[in-house]
Amino acid sequence: MKVAVKFSVAFLLIITSISCEKEVVTRTYKAKNVIIIVIDGARYSETWGDSTHQNIPRIAGQLSKYGVINSQFYNDGPTYTMAGHTSITTGFYQEINNSGQELPNHPSFFQYFNAEYIDSVETSWIISSKDKLEVLANCQSTDFADKFKPFTNCGISGLSSGYREDSITFKVAMQVLSEHHPNIAFISFKEPDHSAHAGIWDNYLLGIKSTDEYAYQLWDYIQSDSVYKGNTALFITNDHGRHLDSIPGGFTAHGDNCFGCRHIMFYAFGPDFKQGEILDKHRGLIDITATISEILHIDMPDNRGEVMVELFR
Question: Which of 30, 210, 217, 223 has its CA 20 to 30 A from that of 19?
Fold first, then answer.
């Protein structure tokens, strides 16, 4: 009887071990590349929150049919440019200097990816109209500081050189994608944030419409390029919104905890994602990080985000 008991226990341990191993099997995804587009500082009420979708005709009228919209997406951290972008790339909400004079505390998915695929020549790029976003290429972490950095093309000619027009950033993005085909491309446009700060409402709306068009053109390129077609995930979002009209400054400012600053747009497209779906699950910027790391099998052990499993087929 004692022998039988020991055998049963051993057998259960073996079955349990096998069962546990099955649970941690890595899922395979069709997407091998990721492109992230950030439309800086668009308020939700002028994007998906507007039932007419007049400012985002491409995303609402065409792209939404082939991907997933989440109507309950937020910046749950500091609602300004550097912090919003940092949360996407690192998976942490961090208070950070907004002028580009401070590095993120934590490594980005660029650095983790490059560390794993160090033999690749140009695996990741940051392309931005705002020069200060070049600091996203590095971090303060001892193990990653000044290591495994992505290529950058930000502002006029890098950090402290000043902003450039989004039309130039779009051209640079198209050139980088076509010539280098990075596995990860992070593309950030300064509009509509730049015009909103200037207090020009019409230009603010025009900034949303123009970046909507740029986003569509990039999406269209992915569908026609032999390297990217059928194996690329695309995310489109904002780093933050803007004050509600009831708050002093209104659309011209942002940076607090108001609903207008936190509520932002989200779109995801890719071979592993659902099509034509509109979700209403509360998610945040750091969940983009976790989802990208899941798709590309990047080991980011400390990131605070959650994989957006509801996006997948």
Answer: 30
* Sheet strands (E) in 111-216: 124-128, 151-154, 184-189
Query: Whole-angstrom Cα distance, residue 107 to residue 51?
Result: 38
Going from N- to C-terminal start, the domains of the chain cover 29-311
pLDDT value for 25: 58
Percentage with pLDDT > 90 across the chain = 88
Whether the full predicted model's pTM is greater than 0.85, yes or no, is yes
Cβ atoms < 10 Å from Cβ of 15: 10
Residues 83-87: contacts with CB under 8 Å, at least 24 apart:
83/239, 83/240, 84/38, 84/238, 84/239, 84/240, 84/285, 85/38, 85/133, 85/136, 85/188, 85/239, 86/136, 87/284, 87/285, 87/286, 87/289
Model pLDDT for residues 46-98, shown as the tens digit of each residue: 999 999 999 999 999 999 999 999 999 999 999 999 999 999 999 999 999 99
**Closest by Cα among 93, 117, 167 to 296:** 117
Indicate the pLDDT class of residue 117, thresholds 50, 70 and 90. confident
Give the span between the Cα atoms of 265 and 42, in whole angstroms. 8
